[in-house]
Amino acid sequence: MSSAVNAEPAVNGNEALHTAAVYATGFTGTITVQATLANQVTNSSPWADIATITLTGEEVAPTPVNFNGVFSYVRFKTTTNPANKITQILVRN
Predict the structure, then answer these.
(1) Which H or E run contains 11?
(2) Which residues pair with 65 in a beta bridge?
């Protein structure tokens, strides 16, 4: 699971469009975008699944995902170990 990224709720207003680009090499599995409305992230913060990306391991370009919503924080959860296979996830709020 990634660390929480501030989703900048004060800036985004009611029609907030978020974009993430996943840079992966040989990763096979699912990445779930999760978001919370909590003011602070703790171990008991509630997270909701917002979007899902399925990668086959054949991707050569960044894989984008778009989602709308006013959230406090977003994070990314994978079904398999992403070590050395997901190099970065860029988020644009």
Answers:
(1) helix 9-12
(2) 20
CA distance 66 to 38: 21
The 10s digit of each residue's pLDDT in 54-92 is 999 999 899 999 999 888 999 999 999 999 999 999 998
pTM: 0.82
- Locate 77 and state its tokens: 């959860």
Are the C-beta atoms of residues 93 and 9 closer than 8 Å to each other? no
Nearest to 22 by CA among 88, 92, 74: 88
Is the CB of residue 54 less than 8 Å from the CB of residue 30?
A: yes
- CA proximity to 71, closest of 1, 2, 11: 11
